[in-house]
Amino acid sequence: MTSKPRASALLALALLAACSSNPASAPPGANQGSEPEPGAADKAPAASAMIAIDGSSTVFPISEAMAEEFQKENPAKVTIGVSGTGGGFKKFCKQETVITGASRPIKPTEVEMCKEAGVEYIELPVAYDGIAVVIHKDNDWAKELTVEDLKRMWEPGAQGKVTKWSQVRTGWPDKEIHLFGPGVDSGTYDYFTKAIVGKEHASRGDFTSSEDDNVLVQGVATDPLALGFFGYAYYSENKAKLGLAAITDGDEENGAGHIQPTPETVANGTYQPLSRPVFIYVNKGASARPEVNAFIEYYLTKGTPLVEETGYIPLPPKAYELALKRFKDGVHGSLFLGGGSKVGVTVEELLAGK
Amino acid sequence: MQASEATVAATATQQQSPLRGSVPLSERAIEAFLLGCGLITILTTVGILLVLAFETFAFFQEVTLGQLLLDTQWTPLFADKHFGIWPLVGGTMLTSAVAIAVALPFGLMAAIFLSEFASARWRKTLKPALEVLAGVPTIVYGYFALVVITPALQAVIPDLAGFNALSPGLVMGIMIIPLIASLSEDALYAVPNSLREGAYALGASKLPTIFRVTLPAAAGGIAASVILAISRAIGETMVVAIAAGQQPRLTADPRVPVETMTAYIVQVSMGDTPTGTIEYRTIFVVGTALFVMTFVMNVLSYRLAKRFRRDS
Q1: In chain B, % of residues over pLDDT 90
Q2: Of A285, A343, B180, B269, which residue is the least packed, with the fewest Cβ within 10 Å?
Q3: Mean pLDDT computed over every residue of chain B
Q4: How far is CA B23 from CA B11, B32, B220, in A?
Q5: CA–CA separation, B66 vs B71, rounded Å?
């Protein structure tokens, strides 16, 4: 007999607690929106004010910086993942994300994937990046490389055969060569193979491959026989630990001799063939959402100084204007006609010549 | 009041029911519960085996056993695909061999000290202290290898790569010392005192007694502990994934980057390999191979331990 009233009292208490906790939690929830904390993104008050981003590890530092600054003035929450360019497009076409970073243009297979899912996208170039070819600090023989040298090291035919420096060029040490490169889902890998080997996604398989660029930095920095490649921004962050190789493509018209990647040589197109634009792709359907609209506008106008701060090379101001116009007009599709990586083009030419 | 009468009636029937069966209902419920607990682990094992078998079978629809066992290159993620598993097995063997080379002498010496020399009080304090080593999370060992041991070794060994088999091997060895020490100590301690006394009676001093009498008598148990340690080293993931590198390479040189079987599984799971592809299935094949290796080791260890128990 006595247990029943006790139970109902408990229930009532619980209900009361539940009722009172709801209104109580609402104000902090609303306040949260104005907090500039990116980490609290998953506790956002409403799902609609979330901007989900994924994609390239190369574009990640830019988007991260943009999101951090953007959230200081806007209540929307931005979450950013790093799945590589290919992995990012998979999620983007499944509509799990509204923006995806890409260190190469969208590929025909990905165009098809998005088309099937009914996803329309707007392609926006956001910065230039050079792919840095890095060596150990004490390496004094491979400071100047030709595209041919790199091809001999990286082409699929080198697998299991070219294992020593002396096999790449006579006169180099008769010691093992340890290669480090980004994982196969990475756009940097796609672009590098296209530019060096001539075919996207074709390389030897017996090298240390990691989606985590910091692993590559660590590997090359601590191995005197190493050679690796990754985005210029990761090199400029770790300058003190790494050696940088100068590259020549043999074509004297786009800059004579061996050229190192620097902000200047990447932007003016003389660091060839390893400089390229990087992109974000925006879901066209979601671009109408005010927070997405505001974020992209921030990305292409007020946020552009962040590109340089994060170690990338900003596009010329004119190119950002053209990109913003492209976004406002809602131009669907790729400037590269879905053809994947293209070597040696400037963004201005592309945007202007549409 | 009616309600309370009903409760009384209910308890009365409950009290009656045990009289009907020979085993009380509550006891049978407990038995069923315990059986369920046991079944969960068995069913999980069966489930894992089925998934491994299923995916491995699917793998062999596209790749032959010959391609897996007769090739010496492992590049399933790349343009020129090779499925020779030996570079991964080699990487695993190399790191494990280094680990055992460290853990066996130190573990065994520690076991001999604890069993033959240490007083009861020492033994009581030292043994748990040794086992604390086994409680350190493996990721801590991994970064210890990468940022402390590797740079220290590089000061001594020129040409040592930043990722190599040596440093994680050494650290893994330290990690499994407690395993060998603890199990070997049990084996040594279980050797009957009459054997030692017999040796003393024949005029043997302490060291000959240990190495000629006690150790051989406990050999089965010690071997079992070593095999368990090997299987632990083979299955270790975090330490090698962090510090050994990610380059499948068939080599016996511990100074260069290698990739172990476990590290390969980690590498593929971290990327975005779509399910159902051949790249995805490779991790199950590697998993199956790993399972077979550790299973054989564990059976061997069990057999040895059993024989040693019968002998003593």
Answers
A1: 63
A2: B269
A3: 87
A4: 19, 13, 44
A5: 8
Q: Give B192: exposed, middle or buried? Use CB within 10 Å, 0-12, 13-18, 19+.
A: exposed
pLDDT tens, B142-156? 999 999 999 999 999
- Side-chain half-sphere exposure of B300, counting CA atoms within 13 A: 16
The B residues from 260 to 299 touching A (CB cutoff 8 Å) are 267, 270-272, 274
Report the pLDDT value the prediction gives residue A342, as an integer from 0 to 100: 65
Length of chain B: 312
pLDDT tens-place string over residues B248-281:
888 899 998 999 999 999 888 876 677 778 888 9
Mean pLDDT value of segment B112-116: 92
Contact B78 A203 (CB under 8 A): yes
Cα separation, A69 vs A311, in Å, equals 16
- A303 to chain B, closest Cα gap in Å: 30
For residue A269, what pLDDT is reported?
A: 75
| pTM, two decimal places | 0.74
Residues in contact with B228: Cβ distance below 8 Å, sequence separation at least 6, in sequence order? B179, B183, B297, B298, B301
Contacts of A349 (CB under 8 A, 6+ apart): none
Which of B290, A64, A9 has its CA nearest to residue B282?
A: B290
Cβ-proximal residues to B103 (8 Å cutoff; 6+ apart), any chain: B172, B173, B174, B176, B177, B179, B180, B229, B233
Does A219 sit within 8 Å of B162, measured CB to CB? yes
Kindly report the number of other CB atoms within 10 A of residue A59's CB atom. 30
According to the model, what pLDDT value does residue A292 have?
92
Secondary structure (DSSP) of B194-227: HHHHHHHHTT--HHHIIIIIIHHHTHHHHHHHHH
